[in-house]
């Protein structure tokens, strides 16, 4: 039997692939357990700087496996199907490495929530997003009702969540749901190029910056600014002038190449 989650590490990039293409990468109990372990693995591995999350086949992720949710495989109640296997979202949120979501196809309901747990999203032109919680008859438990309105506005979020309609990759980009849209064959190369840009930053600062943004995002502005000042004062204690000078030269050289 094939592994339901594939983990590949190369050049400080960990690629986590949901590998149930025959089921549109639906989140079975087995897959959720494997996904939690994959993110715990990369969180522990100091050789990994950035994570890419994607799906095999034509779907990114179709959400919770409805066969399990309906009890057809003996997995028990709906609550067990949604909550069992460990907390996937917690494992992702606790991962200190930036997570790039490479949305290769359908991202539906729980799969949509999985995408929203990534730090940023690159979408294939074949990607489609939908929130079908209301059609299935369950409420979200992985953050969709709170994250989506903050990302694209409450009116657009209600349109998606209260209809269950699909939105295209292009529309998702126009709404600010994804960072950019690329051709299907360019998806992973684009994500790896973005990961390489991140890897060229100072690793401890990269992790601290991600943590600072995440912690401050849900705070009132004044509290967020206070948090930033405190983080700045703590972080600057570890900064060495010689290191800053070397990085400044590297930034200038990079600017000349990009200019």
Described by the principal axes of the CA atoms, the overall outline is globular
Give the helix/strand class: alpha/beta
Can you summarize the main beta sheet?
A: 6 strands, mixed
* Spatial strand arrangement across the major sheet: 1-2-3-5-7-10
Average pLDDT over all residues: 91
- Listing every helix as H and every strand as E from the N terminus to the C terminus, the arrangement reads EEHEEHHHEEHEEHHHEHEHHHH
Could you say how many structural domains there are in total? 2
- Total DSSP helices: 13
Q: Helix proportion of residues, in percent?
A: 40-55%
Write the SSE topology.
Elements: E1 5-10, E2 13-18, H1 29-44, E3 50-55, E4 59-61, H2 66-69, H3 78-83, H4 88-93, E5 99-103, E6 106-108, H5 110-116, E7 120-124, E8 128-130, H6 133-136, H7 144-152, H8 154-161, E9 167-168, H9 169-174, E10 180-182, H10 187-199, H11 203-217, H12 221-236, H13 241-258
Parallel strand pairs: 2-3, 3-5, 4-6, 5-7, 6-8, 7-10
Antiparallel strand pairs: 1-2, 8-9
């Amino acid at each position: 039997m094939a592994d339901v989650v594939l983990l590949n590490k190369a050049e400080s990039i960990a690629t986590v692939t949901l590998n149930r293409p025959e089921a549109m990468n639906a989140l079975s109990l087995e897959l959720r357990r494997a996904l939690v372990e994959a993110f715990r693995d990369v969180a522990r591995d100091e050789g990994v700087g950035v994570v890419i999350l994607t799906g095999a086949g034509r779907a990114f992720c179709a959400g919770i496996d409805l066969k399990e949710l309906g009890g057809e495989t003996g997995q028990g109640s709906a609550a067990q199907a949604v909550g069992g296997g460990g907390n996937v979202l917690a494992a992702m949120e606790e991962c200190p490495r930036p997570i790039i979501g490479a949305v290769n196809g359908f991202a539906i309901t729980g799969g949509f929530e999985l995408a929203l747990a990534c730090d940023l999203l690159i979408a294939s032109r074949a990607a489609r997003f939908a929130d079908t919680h209301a059609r299935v008859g369950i409420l979200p438990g992985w953050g969709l009702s709170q994250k989506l309105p903050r990302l694209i506005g409450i009116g657009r979020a209600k349109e998606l969540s209260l209809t269950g309609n699909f939105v295209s990759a292009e529309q998702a980009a126009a709404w600010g749901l994804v960072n950019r849209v690329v051709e299907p064959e360019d998806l992973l190369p684009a994500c790896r190029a973005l990961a390489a840009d991140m890897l060229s930053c100072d690793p401890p600062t990269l992790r601290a910056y991600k943590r600072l943004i995440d912690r401050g995002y849900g705070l009132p502005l004044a509290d967020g600014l206070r948090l930033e000042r405190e983080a700045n004062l703590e972080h600057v204690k570890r900064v060495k002038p010689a290191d800053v000078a070397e990085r400044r030269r590297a930034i200038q050289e990079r600017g000349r190449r990009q200019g």
